[in-house]
Amino acid sequence: MKLSKRIIIQLASAILYNANFSGFKNAKIYQGPIKNACVPGLNCYSCPGAIAACPLGSFQNYIMQKKGVTGLLNRFPFYVLGLLILFGVIFGRVVCGFLCPFGLIQELVYKIKTPKIKKNDTTRKLTIIKYFILIFFAILLPIILDNPSFCKYICPAGTIEAGIIHVSLNKALQSSIGFLFNWKVFIAIIIIIMSLFMYRFFCRFICPLGAIYSFFNNHAILRLKIDEKKCTHCNVCINTCLMDVKKVSDRECIECGECVKKCPENAIYRFTPTQS
Fold first, then answer.
1. Which of 4, 41, 126, 151 is deepest in the core (most CB within 10 A)?
2. Three-state secondary structure along the chain?
């Protein structure tokens, strides 16, 4: 099977994010000097291979309220928020399409031959769920409950990349498995099963990080753009896209570039600052 350039970039990103290969043998979390830096994509801090932090997990960690409102103000996530804005301004949801390991996992699962549920008006409406998850699980609950609630209760990347690996390699942990671990495994299984039938199920309906990047998508430096002089408005780009897009580079577009290949008029291109 010939790998596309995008798949190669996705694989390279996953390997780079998790370059602490010895961690997969000894199940120890890397704590080196670059661990406090954040990668652009969703990649669990606790993964044995992770050499840097997840921006979403770091954001929740910073806003966890330890000493009331004053404590929250003292711990305002300027660093992480600045990185998210930087990643958003440069990449937008290019991060989702090229630089997220869990996005790659979903795409590989979707390639397994099963009946597929195609996008429709209902799935487009359901994409708003991830914005509620962003507000509730990634912002409000971390402040109220003093824990990284999205990571703790939902994140399948953390379960697959970290939780299951640590439990499988550490006998002491195996005896202490409780409801929370079983719940997270259940959620991860449901998401993987749904990804068999629906393209990037987690990205479309659940991921708060994708929700954040979507705010920048139509203005990001590396976004896709349409040459209106060439475009005939045939909608081949929209109709063949597996995401819930209404137009190229809208909030649901992951900037994968598949529409560039399919456009019969060659009207879609990757916008850069050198182009007008």
1. 41
2. CCCCHHHHHHHHHHHHHCCCCCHHHHCCCCCCCCCCCECCCCCCCCCCCCCCECHHHHHHHHHCCCCHHHHHHHCCCHHHHHHHHHHHHHCCCHHHHHCCHHHHHHHHHHCCCCCCCCCCHHHHHHCCHHHHHHHHHHHHHHHHHCCCHHHHHCCHHHHHHHHHHHHHHCHHHHCCCCHHHHHHHHHHHHHHHHHHHCCCHHHHHCCHHHHHHHCCHHHCCCCEEECCCCCCCCCHHHHHCCCCCCCCCCCCCCCCCHHHHHCCCCCEEECCCCCC
